[in-house]
Automatic annotation (TrEMBL):
This is DUF1349 domain-containing protein. It holds the Pfam family KTI12. The keyword Nucleotide-binding applies. PANTHER family: REGULATION OF ENOLASE PROTEIN 1 (PTHR35332:SF2). SUPFAM superfamilies: Concanavalin A-like lectins/glucanases, P-loop containing nucleoside triphosphate hydrolases.
Length: 368
């Protein structure tokens, strides 16, 4: 960190440092530490801490999307630029710290950008009791919008971990490619008649008339697809590659997250007789399934899927023909149950004989 600042100072008389992160990540403390360190090296340093526009939080709750209103209106960055110019009249280094510094609409040319990394879990734990609800709800949604729109961690020069949780490597629950024995942690829901573990994959021949679906549109309820899973309360990223030899209409395979019969989601590639297969995502809440699909315009017999869990929210992504990951769906499971089953699934709603290889399954904790 300090080496980078010194390198910048070799080529410039003055430098501007931006420090941001989520609420209660430690931005202000870290800015003061940098200031003290640099002042000990005989630099003149000024810290600017962003100040919210007056009554902005109260005003935000007058709108349907309060965190969005705050995101768009919380700070007057033109005034911040004026402060920066004023500070540079008598200082070598100016440090600006606060929320939302790295929005794509903030046109401040920082020489060094720093992100103070912290999980939402720790941020909420650090909040005083009278502010916990605000951190759990308002600020969390604010930062999730910020991450989605601006991806600030990808824009910075340095990421500083300021959270004990982040000091530990994320737990890897299952990794069939690098640790094939981890499949022993998994168990079947609706075990297929024919299956086996082969190196880094699980091979299945599906049983007839198997599926997961609840009520919507068709009226029927099926809850007997083959699912190999672990259970966890933690947030995670789950990926797999599926390779298949489809025979019957609706033969399908992919990834699944399940709470119970009435609350689950799945993503798959599904066989269409005489046509290219289609991608799909089914989300079931309170016993009713909805189904989104995307038709492919070419034949394939393999695909990659990824599901990311963040509390009750899930992002489904797909990679077909190695064209790169792209988002298929963002969705929500409404159940209050924290523990979920997650893993691979396959089924044949019509008849048996569908051959599936579920390869390179990896389920890894993701900090949120």
């Amino acid at each position: 960190m300090y080496n980078l600042i010194r390198e910048k100072l070799k080529n410039k008389d003055k430098i501007l440092i931006g420090i941001s992160g989520i609420s209660l990540s430690g931005k202000t403390t870290f800015a003061k530490e940098i200031q003290n360190k640099l002042e000990n090296d005989n630099y003149k340093v000024q810290v600017i801490s962003l100040v919210e526009n007056e009554n902005i939080i109260k005003a935000s709750f007058n709108y349907k999307n309060p965190s969005k209103y705050y995101y768009e209106n919380a700070f007057n960055f033109n005034k911040v630029k004026e402060q920066i110019d004023e500070c540079f009249k008598s200082n070598d280094i100016v440090i600006v710290e606060g929320l939302l510094l790295f929005k794509n609409t903030v046109k401040i040319n920082f020489n060094v950008k720093v992100w103070i990394d912290c999980t939402f879990t720790t941020s909420i734990n650090r909040a005083p009791m009278d502010k916990k609800n605000l951190c759990e709800d308002f600020y969390m949604w604010l930062h999730r919008q910020h991450f989605s729109i601006d991806n600030p961690k990808k824009e910075v020069d340095i990421v500083i971990k300021n959270d004990e949780i982040l000091e530990n490597e994320p737990e890897i629950f299952v990794d069939l490619k690098n640790k094939p024995s981890s499949v022993k942690k998994m168990q079947w829901l609706n075990e297929p008649t024919i299956w086996e573990v082969r190196k880094n994959e699980v091979y299945v021949e599906t049983d007839a008339i198997t599926d997961f679906w609840q009520r919507t549109h068709y009226g029927f309820r099926n809850d007997n697809a083959h699912m190999l899973y672990i259970e966890t309360e933690k947030d995670f990223v789950m990926t797999t590659k599926v390779k298949f030899n489809a025979i019957h209409q609706f033969d399908q395979c992919g990834l699944i997250v399940r709470i119970d019969e009435d609350n689950w989601l799945k993503t798959s590639i599904e066989y269409e007789l005489g046509n290219p297969p289609k991608l799909g995502g089914v989300v079931t809440n309170l016993g009713y399934s909805d189904w989104s699909t995307e038709e492919l315009d070419f034949q394939v017999n393999e695909a990659k899927f990824r599901i990311t869990r963040e509390d009750k929210d899930y992002k489904i992504e797909v990679n077909v023909a190695d064209r790169g990951w792209r988002q298929l769906r963002i969705c929500h499971l409404h159940s209050t149950e924290k523990k979920v089953k997650c893993g691979i699934y396959c089924c044949s709603p019509i008849d048996n004989g569908y051959e599936v290889s579920l390869k390179d399954l990896k389920i890894q904790e993701q900090y949120f």
